[in-house]
Automatic annotation (TrEMBL):
The CARD domain, residue ranges: 38-96
GO cellular component: endoplasmic reticulum membrane; mitochondrial membrane
Main location: endoplasmic reticulum
Membrane topology summary: Single-pass membrane protein
Subcellular location: Endoplasmic reticulum membrane; Mitochondrion membrane
Biological source species: Molothrus ater (Brown-headed cowbird)
One BP annotation, GO: regulation of apoptotic process
Subunit note: Associates with BCL10 by CARD-CARD interaction.
Record's protein name: Caspase recruitment domain-containing protein 19
Gene: Card19
Keywords on record: Disulfide bond, Endoplasmic reticulum, Membrane, Mitochondrion, Transmembrane, Transmembrane helix
Amino acid sequence: QSYCHRLQHDMYFLTSTSRLNEQVVDKIVLQLNRVYPQILTNEEAEKFRNPKASLHTRLSDLLKHLQKKGDRHCQEFYRALQINAEQLYNDLPSRKILKTPDPTEIDTDKEQYMLNDRGPVFFLACFSVAAGLALFWYCCNSETQVIGRARRILGFSPIIIGRHVRNICMLYLEDMSRN
């Protein structure tokens, strides 16, 4: 995608209220004038820095002017925007499109938030239930003869599981050993 098309796509975002303040626009215009004199002449820079015109009008005129000049001029505008307002540059709609080239691709930031919104306590609770069920199934299986070992493990686990749950498991294991 050319820089002119990107600038046309980002124009509404950039000209909306309170995105760019006067100081940042002045810095961008000065950079396009001083550092890259072939981008904006002195007369053009004065026109776009005129404090009598509103910021919205000056910025809109600047963006339209750069689009008429060509792709290289738009590219230099993006470079100046990145230097002077990096956070805004990273939030541009065209940058977000460039970051995810496939529109059907999953946005990993959003997916990561959706998967991790329950926290570590939820994970530990689920893991504990799964481990308890696995131990219970292993001990109840008639083919295995590990009730004595399981009883020893449960006997040393007052920290891992609660006292009441441990007592219930111990009673169950005693009943299983009698049968």
